[in-house]
Structures are given as structure tokens and as C-alpha cells.
Amino acid sequence: MSERPRLTVLSGPSGVGKSTVVAFMRAQHPEVWLSVSATTRKPRPGERNGVHYHFVDEDQFAKMVANGELLEWAVFAGNHYGTPRKAVLDKLELGEPVLLEIDLQGARQVRESMPEAQLVFLAPPSWEELVRRLTGRGTESQAVIDQRLAAAKVELAAESEFDATLVNTSVEGVAAELLALLNVV
After folding, report:
1. Residues in domain Guanylate kinase-like (predicted)?
2. Does residue 17 have a known ligand-binding role?
3. What is the per-residue pLDDT across 85-130, written as a single tens digit (0 to 9) for each?
4. What is the four-CA torsion angle of 175, 178, 184, 185, rounded to 10 degrees?
5. Does the annotation flag 153 for ligand binding?
6. How far apart are alpha carbons 109 and 21 in whole angstroms?
7. Most CB contacts within 10 A, which of 29, 85, 144, 147?
8. Is the pTM of this model over 0.85?
């Protein structure tokens, strides 16, 4: 490894394929540590505490915020989500590559608190392809899709705030580019 790993943030609009790229990359390179977020959301069937999320109640989350224990946090769909700071710093101290998969608001908070972090924007090949991906899921109402598309326009406009942009034309290709940015090749 040519240099010490640093925190890398992957962000981009809903439907661009962040989770798919991360899952593919980690299947090939499990040494890349993906932060586990804390949330006030109730677990879904099959989700395990400490694996998928750290499930906490509102009071615990408020204490984490007040004590500066979160690197970033946001409210989404009435639930709080945040990245525990200590786990990220511990992994970085061990020299392990750390990846956060978070939204634009969280990426901006990380930039404020850790300016040395590398922010990577995952972009769709085109607006039409993003619309196709979001509508093709078939799991959300038109109102939710419209909300996601409106948010995507805001997120796409913020691309210049990022250190690098990867265009998701191929999961394998983008995963390889992300690994190179993480210095894991």
C-alpha cells in the first residue's frame, strides 16, 4: 500500500447503485471496512444489531449527538441515522481502509469535521438511466419516486463539492475505480 488509508465517503443520488457497488467491492475485498450506522429505526426482518445497524432509541441517539460521538448524522423518513465516530477513527488508526456510504448532507458534515476525508461522487450514466433505475424498482409509489428524483437533482448539482466522480456504467468497473481510490489494489 503506497500511503496510509484515509476515510473515503461514497455518495450520490438514490438509485445510482451505491449499495450494489459497495456489496460487489466488499465481496472481492472484505478488508475494506464499511461503517455500520446507528439508527433509531426499528429493525426489519433479518436485520441484526451491530451488523446492519446499531439500533438505538431516541434518547440514546440524542446522547450520542450531544457527546460528539457521531461523525455525521441526519433525519430521514422520521428516523435518525448517524456514523459512530470512534469506530471510524479506530479503523483508520489501524491503517485499514474505511468507507462510508452516506447521503449528501452526511458527506458535507464529514467534510467539515474531517477535511482530509476523500469524498467520491457516484453519478449515473445519464438522467434518463437514473429515472429508469428508480422507476424500474417497482417497490415505491410515484410520489416517492418523484421525491427521490427531486432530491437527485439537488445531489447532482453538488457534484463539484466532491474530490472525484465515478460514473456507474458498470458495477465491476466502478468497484475497481473505487478500490484504486481507496489504495486497495
Report:
1. 5-183
2. yes
3. 999 999 999 988 899 999 899 999 999 999 999 999 999 999 999 9
4. 60
5. no
6. 23
7. 85
8. yes
DSSP 183: T
Read off the pLDDT of residues 66-96 as tens digits, 9 standing for 90 and up: 999 999 998 877 899 999 999 999 999 998 8
Task: State how many domains the chain has.
Answer: 1
Domain with 32, as residue range(s), is 7-181
Among 161, 150, 154, smallest CA distance to 121 is for 161
3-class DSSP state for residue 92?
Answer: helix
Q: Is 2 annotated as a binding residue?
A: no
Give the closest residue to 113 by CA, choosing from 157, 81, 154, 65. Answer: 65
Average per-residue pLDDT in the chain?
91
1 falls within a domain: no
Helix 171-181 and helix 18-28: axis angle, to 10°? 70
Determine if residue 18 is labeled as part of a ligand binding site: yes
Asked whether residue 2 is domain-assigned, the answer is: no
Answer yes or no: is 75 a known binding residue: no
What string of DSSP letters covers 126-142? -HHHHHHHHHHT--S-H
> 131: annotated binding-site residue?
no
Rounded CA separation 177/172 (Å)? 9
Banded model confidence at residue 1, pLDDT cuts 50, 70, 90: very low
The CATH number of whichever domain residue 41 belongs to comes to 3.40.50.300
